[in-house]
Automatic annotation (TrEMBL):
Biological source species: Psittacicella melopsittaci
A Pfam family of this chain: Ribul_P_3_epim
Binding of substrate, residues: S10, H69, G145, F146, G147, G148, D180, G181, G182, G202, S203
Highest taxon of the lineage: Bacteria
GO molecular function, one term: metal ion binding
Matches recorded under InterPro entries: Aldolase_TIM, Ribul_P_3_epim, Ribul_P_3_epim-like, RibuloseP-bd_barrel
Enzyme Commission number: 5.1.3.1
Name assigned to this protein: Ribulose-phosphate 3-epimerase
Keyword Transmembrane carried by entry: no
Keywords attached to this entry: Carbohydrate metabolism, Cobalt, Isomerase, Manganese, Metal-binding, Zinc
Reactions catalysed, as given in the entry: D-ribulose 5-phosphate = D-xylulose 5-phosphate
Gene transcribed to yield this protein: rpe
GO cellular component: cytoplasm
Cofactor(s) demanded: Mn(2+); Zn(2+); Co(2+); a divalent metal cation
Catalytic residues, chain numbering: D37 (proton acceptor), D180 (proton donor)
Length: 238
């Protein structure tokens, strides 16, 4: 295994009444990053939370990397608020913005790493011109807006195509492939085999009694089924 596997619990499924405790527990259980699903009831038909929750978790003492997916319009303003609140990374939804290149640069100028998410029905080829500028591509494996949905298998072809294109552009291992939606012990095998290395999971982790057992199992399955393309990245000469 040469590509790091990243498990990113989505706090959308956490216990909001005890968020600090719940996030502390999930980090102690082995989570690599904390994933924020930010929904504005405009771009997606649901409302979740904003930057004050990020600041509250930092004030509570959470130091793990915070990875924010803005399922929102007004990306530029919200990216600034999340930077001030202590976030490390912003992913914006391709379909929510007009000027892809400008938005990427704005987030980078804030000193944050940057990703773009695409919905299940959006062709991944649209991202090929800007892959080199990105730290991460998020392939949504459900329609955004709600936790607990069923994984859409047709998204696998997009993950595979992206992995191959990253390899072609000599970016494999530099741009992470993240997946979100219906990730669990049944689906992670095919997702890893297709090329995903960063797994967002909400209900599979937070609905379980034993977070450590779920996270360890997900990580082991992802390593076991990792795409052979990652096994030796020495072709890059690094
Ligand atoms: O982001 C979304 C939907 O927009 C969710 O997919 C959650 O991030 C993960 O939920 P589970 O499917 O893992 O419960």
């Amino acid at each position: 295994m040469s590509q790091e596997i990243v498990i990113s619990p989505s706090i959308l499924s956490a216990d909001f009444a005890r968020l600090g405790e719940d996030v502390t527990r999930v980090i102690a259980a082995g989570a690599d990053r904390i994933h924020f699903d930010v929904m504005d009831n405009n771009y997606v038909p649901n409302l979740s939370f904003g930057a004050p929750i990020c600041k509250a978790l930092r004030d509570y003492g959470i130091s793990a990397p915070i990875d924010v997916h803005l399922m929102t319009n007004e990306v530029e303003r919200l990216a600034r608020y999340f930077k001030e609140a202590g976030a490390n990374h912003i992913t914006f939804s391709y379909e929510a913005i007009t000027h892809t290149d400008r938005t990427i640069n704005l987030i980078k100028e804030l000193g944050l790493s940057v990703g773009i998410a695409i919905n299940p029905g959006t062709p991944v080829e649209l991202l090929y011109p800007v892959l080199e500028q990105l730290d991460l591509v998020l392939i949504m494996t459900v329609n955004p807006g709600f936790g607990g949905q069923k994984f859409l298998p047709y998204t696998l072809a997009k993950i595979e195509a992206l992995r191959q294109e990253l390899k072609r552009q000599n970016l494999l291992g530099k741009v992470e492939i993240q997946v979100d939606g219906g990730v669990n012990a049944d689906t992670i095998r095919v997702l890893a085999h297709a090329g995903a290395t960063n797994f967002v999971a909400g209900s599979a982790i937070f609905d379980a009694e034993d977070y450590a057992q779920v996270i360890t199992n997900l990580r082991e399955l992802a390593i076991e089924h990792e795409s052979p393309d990652y096994v030796d990245l020495s072709f890059r000469g690094e």
